[in-house]
Amino acid sequence: MLRTANQDCDNTGLLSAMAFWNFSSQISSQGRSLVRLMACLLLGLSVWFAAPAPDAWALGGPQPPLDQPAPEFSLPTNVGDGTVSLADYRGQWVVVYFYPKDFTSGCTLEAQRFQRDLPQYQARNAQILGISVDDVDSHREFCDSEGLRFPLLADTTGAISKAYGSWLGTMSLRHTYLVDPDGILRERFLGVNPAVHSREVLARLDELQKTS
User: Fold this and answer.
1) What's residue 39's pLDDT?
2) For the CA atoms of 206, 92, 86, 187, what is the dihedral angle to 10 degrees?
């Protein structure tokens, strides 16, 4: 997405490089080398932005590829028999959302929005799963506090967050993934806005279900 969004840098960078090069011919020889070096740097940047990215990357690292099986996981949770696996939801769409920490303002707002829209996800045969580094006790308290009726999973080692390219330092990043009923990763949302994210996911889910 980064390089696609910056494709305009191609033409801009080339024009800037040419302008610097022409300018260098009009100044003293003392500054000509420096100016031309700057022109080469601009040209290199324009080529880098224009080139297609071989793999998707985000702040948390390389992303799992779309239209391929989503990374499997089994993690402790605050509901049911105490463990939830992605494979438990074959036959359903799954919203796997990573977030930094229970009870923080952005994470609370994001969870509240998912809970508000939960009936709409259920109507679309979709299950919501939240994942963070918090332990099961913290998840239980968070769910009780906010009235959450979907599982929160404890990725205390960060292993699953890392598998999804959603790990930075000591916590999960705010990334979301849509997995289809066959376990195939169909969409990813990186660096989301908690206030509007649930509606964004619902809209994309509708699009995917129309074409599946």
Assistant:
1) 42
2) -20
**Distances in whole angstroms, Cα of residue 96 to Cα of each of 8, 166, 178, 188:** 33, 11, 6, 9
Give catalytic residue positions: 107
Provide the greatest CA pair distance for the chain: 77
Query: Nearest to residue 128, comparing CAs of 139, 140, 117, 142?
Result: 117
The predicted model scores a pTM of 0.74
Query: Which of 81, 149, 141 has the alpha carbon at shortest distance from 111?
Result: 149
Tell me how far apart the alpha carbons of residues 146 and 148 are, in angstroms, rounded to a whole number. Answer: 6
CA dihedral in degrees (63, 197, 105, 151; nearest 10)?
A: -70
**pLDDT tens for each residue of 97-114:** 999 999 999 999 999 999
Residue 118 identity (one-letter amino acid): L
